[in-house]
Specification:
The chain is an alpha+beta fold. The protein has a single domain, classed as Hotdog Thioesterase (Thiol Ester Dehydrase, Chain A). It is 32% helix and 30% strand. It contains five helices and six strands, in the order αβααβββββαα. Strands 1, 2, 3, 4, 5 and 6 form a six-stranded antiparallel β-sheet that branches. α1 packs parallel to α2. The longest helix is centred in the first third of the chain and has 19 residues. It is globular.
Length: 180
């Protein structure tokens, strides 16, 4: 079941925290509950993806009014690609924090980095998420959305090499996939 309470919490309580600028980092804190685990007794990878969603909700809520963004500008986001690297097991009742930030944008997509850290500082998981900004059912340039939302013309940003490598690798994947 989708974690609706956690999602509502991200939107509601993040609003009372200090506002964040476009590239600042949002920190979410979670507990791995028994209903989050798989048959191996660790955080289910599907639930981890849902928690990454919730981390992005918190970031969006702290960057501005989500309702204004959606209703006034008629904009929304959709995931257009995601890569996750899992390195540490997340056991039940374990506390962890997730850091979420926008690290790059190009003509088509925003790229967000998310890191799940355990209390001892070890990185348990790391994700790179490519998001498209949608306005009136069409993809728009992130720079246009940034200008409308933040009222500023975004400076050209630098793509980290590892993100560029991921973008280049994704460009070589056949689409649609050939399943013969």
């Amino acid at each position: 079941m989708y974690p609706f309470i956690r999602s509502a919490n991200a939107f509601l309580f993040s609003k009372f925290r200090p506002k964040l600028q476009l590239t600042e980092t949002h920190i979410s804190r979670f507990i791995c509950w028994p209903w989050d685990i798989d048959m191996w007794g660790e955080l289910n990878n599907g639930r981890a993806l849902s928690l990454f969603d919730i981390g992005r909700y918190g970031l969006l809520a702290r960057q501005g009014s989500v309702l204004e963004f959606y209703l006034k500008h008629k904009m929304s986001f959709t995931v257009a690609g995601l890569s996750v690297r899992y390195r540490r097991r997340m056991r039940p009742f374990r506390l962890f924090e997730m850091k979420t930030r926008v690290i790059f944008w190009d003509d088509k997509f925003l790229y967000l980095e998310q890191v799940i850290n355990l209390p001892d500082g070890q990185c348990a998981a790391h994700s790179l998420c490519r998001k498209a900004v949608i306005e009136n059912r069409k993809i728009i340039q992130p720079a246009v959305a940034i200008e409308r939302t933040f009222g500023l013309v975004p400076e050209q940003n630098t793509c980290p090499e590892w993100v560029k490598n991921w973008i280049d690798a994704e460009a070589t994947r056949p689409w649609p996939p050939d399943l013969r």
